[in-house]
Structures are given as C-alpha cells and as structure tokens.
Amino acid sequence: RSYIQVIAGGQEGDMTTGREKRWSLAGATALVTGGSKGIGRAIVEELAGFGARVHTCSRNAAELEECRRQWEEEELSVTVSVCDVSVRAAREKLMETVRESFHGKLDILVNNAGQLRNEPTYKEPRH
C-alpha cells in the first residue's frame, strides 16, 4: 500500500473509498494563490481531488490556462483567474471573483503565492 492509501484508510487497489469516507471535502470551497505550479498546483489538485470546489490564481496566464485545461480533462472542479497578489487592486478583484463564484462562502484559504528573492535579509555594515 502507498503512503496516501495508509493515511486515507484505503485498501490495496482502492484509493477512493478511504479518501471519500475520511477526507471528503464535498461542498467545501477553497482559494489557493499561486496554484499553477509546484506546491500550489499540488494543493489545488489534492483539494479538488477530495471534492472541494477550488479557485486558483497565478500571474502567468499561459501556465494557468494549461493547468485549467488539464483539470477540466480530469473533471476537477477548479476555476482560475490571472492575478498578481502583490497588487492591492488585483487582490480586491480576486476576492470579488471568489465571493461571486462561491456565493460568499470560502472554507479554505491557502496563501501560497510568493516570490523568492535571492538576497540576504540583513547586510552587515562595513567599517
């Protein structure tokens, strides 16, 4: 048995029974920022796989559209929008989109979007 089968309570060859019984997110809504790649994408897919309706955003429209197509083929309930969460107006528009899509109900928020800066957090003053 795989690790996910063990934690979800499934038997060999039966991934969904345990997941649906113990980890169901049917009826739940989720927003995952930065969901077009990496950890964010994995979170989107897991939440949707457990039955949640998920909205995700990314700055990269092309990546986001490719993900949307794949999720649609897999019949996952995921909607998408382009958003740069570092811009206040874009965040406000994102929240309005989510509010309308989920009729004001948001159960899960994953603030995953971020940018790695390759610089020290502190610079020692030179004497």
UniProtKB/TrEMBL annotation:
Gene3D superfamilies membership: NAD(P)-binding Rossmann-like Domain
Record key words, sorted: NADP, Oxidoreductase
UniProt GO MF annotations: oxidoreductase activity
Origin superkingdom: Eukaryota
The keyword NADP is annotated on this UniProt entry: yes
InterPro entries found in the cross-reference section: NAD(P)-bd_dom_sf, SDR_fam, TR
Annotated PANTHER family: TROPINONE REDUCTASE (PTHR42898)
Protein name per the record: Tropinone reductase I
Organism listed in the record: Aegilops tauschii subsp. strangulata (Goatgrass)
